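Could you help me review a protein record that somebody else here produced? Do not assume that whoever made the record got everything right. The record follows directly below this note.
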Amino acid sequence: MTTRSSLSLSLILQYFVLGVLAYILAGAPLLTILTGSTGEVRKSRAGYARPPPLSAEKASSLVVPEGNLSCGEHAFRGVHVLSREPLVVYLEGFLSEDEVRHVVESSEPHFTPSTVWNSGVERLDPTVRLSHKAAVPRSPAVRCIEERARAFQGWRPYVFVEKLWAQKYGPGGHYNYHYDWAHAIRGAGRVSSFMVWLGDECEGGGTSFPRLEKPVDKGWCRFIECGLDGEQKEGEELDEEMETGVTFRPIRGNAVYWENIKADGTGYEESWHAGLPVKSGTKIGLNIWSWLQEGYEPQKSAGPNARDG
């Protein structure tokens, strides 16, 4: 009698456990009725949970591709791969001389002191960043520059170019070492950057990547700091940043492109970089950042029929 009762109790417990599992696998329908929630975890095509939705402020900073944008042909003078992991590419003639003049002239009235963000608070801190910044007006020529940056990356799904910002550095101007990716998560973040030089009438002011491996071939000395023919000048003390890593010299119209975030959502440590102090003269740069937002599909903008120039 005791054995039969024990067996019955055991069967009841087994059926109960199986019932609970079946209920959970069915999506907890009673919970859905009571809470009005499906309880689903939204998944991306890659199979992982999608990132939080874009804030309205961030969405407004992204360029929505224009369906009928028409731009003249543009050819780079040279494309040179410095690193494959992370991908770092140097581009000669990313902008034409006419485009450089247009961006500089249209940005000039809008420059204001550059700020830094810390724990969500924006503030001026010249010990970290000493420069002026300007949102570049989105003329037809600027829209074509945005599209050129997007096309260079292969029109990647869910990757959007951010609206462009110009930066101006006078004597002493600098930006301490930092990452562009800030808080990287899988499926969202600032996946890539272009640094484009608009003005190079300066001494110093290089863009330094101390964690990149300096190339051996002296052909790179056209674009990076190598001293004189790759050697230290007599009586010259090279800056510590010049001795290791890679420092790109400002060259008007040229650009360097690099990727910030790996496929798994972690940031590349090698993307740690700085704008070194300008010793004399003025450096002007153009930042082009691209933002990944998995699953974000804004409506395409018709936009004006734009042409370079």
